[in-house]
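Translate structure to sequence.
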């Protein structure tokens, strides 16, 4: 099951956390993977070095010139996972315009522009998989994540709309909405005993997920086995949305 031999995958934001686990999971199922990050080549190389058949690519997906470079480096791919995101935790009346813009650009605009860049080949070869990584905050209304939640809801809508348009060409587009997952992003919160307890109280399963919890769903959506699933939005959140 989930045989990805002969497939090439780009996972944006895969130097750590969920993206890293997904890239590693794809590689373990036979794919060649491009490991991307925006901050440093050294970090990309370190992450790729821990994955078989992985190639590091430094590109800040917010920047047009970096997206050009990303595409130049990877060429066309069979599987595109739009995982990189920007998140600012801030009350709605304090968030700065630059922070609004960075979240909108990375999470929505760049997702669309990368789909526009990578989907034509998938269409031509009549096989392709696009997966967006959303968030439980696309539904919930966290007081510090108003704009982030808006971007994730918009990205889900984008996935749904593109799914309908690409379905006739054998290209699926789906979204996974993770709940609280133990990644560097949540390091501070999860190392604060009080905050961690408050967080766990909101998760019906009773624990914080690991990046590896996202991998089985990603494999399903991105393999031959998931070919009849498109436009889906799957929460992997221990019931946090409920
Ligand atoms: N962790 C959670 O609890 C949780 C919950 C719901 C949804 N999510 C979603 O899941 C995805 C992964 O989250 P995570 O917690 O694993 O994140 P993370 O630990 O913050 O890692 C983010 C990754 O994205 C890369 N990145 C950030 N900005 C980038 C940019 N402009 N261009 C290229 N790469 C960029 C980072 O690479 P560099 O540092 O090398 O730049 C890093 O590899 C995100 O879409 C997030 O919104 C996470």
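Result:
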């Amino acid at each position: 099951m989930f045989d990805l031999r002969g497939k090439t995958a780009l996972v944006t934001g895969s130097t750590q956390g969920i993206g890293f686990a997904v890239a590693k999971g794809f590689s373990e199922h036979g794919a060649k993977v491009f490991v991307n990050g925006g901050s440093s080549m050294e970090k990309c190389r370190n992450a790729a070095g821990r994955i078989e058949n992985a190639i590091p690519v430094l590109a800040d997906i917010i920047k047009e010139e970096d997206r050009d470079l990303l595409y130049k480096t990877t060429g066309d791919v069979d599987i595109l996972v739009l995982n990189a995101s920007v998140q600012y935790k801030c009350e709605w009346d304090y968030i700065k315009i630059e922070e609004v813009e960075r979240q909108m650009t990375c999470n929505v605009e760049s997702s669309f522009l990368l789909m526009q860049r990578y989907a034509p080949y998938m269409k031509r070869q009549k096989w392709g998989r696009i997966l967006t990584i959303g968030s439980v905050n696309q539904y919930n209304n966290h007081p510090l994540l108003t704009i982030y939640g808006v971007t994730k809801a918009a990205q889900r809508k984008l996935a749904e709309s593109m799914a309908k348009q690409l379905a006739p060409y054998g290209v699926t587009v789906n979204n996974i909405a993770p709940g609280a997952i133990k990644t560097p992003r949540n390091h501070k919160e999860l190392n604060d005993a009080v905050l961690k307890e408050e967080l766990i109280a909101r998760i019906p399963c009773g624990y914080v997920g690991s990046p590896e919890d996202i991998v089985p769903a990603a494999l399903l959506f991105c393999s031959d086995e998931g070919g009849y699933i498109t436009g889906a939005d799957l929460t992997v959140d221990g019931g946090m949305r409920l």
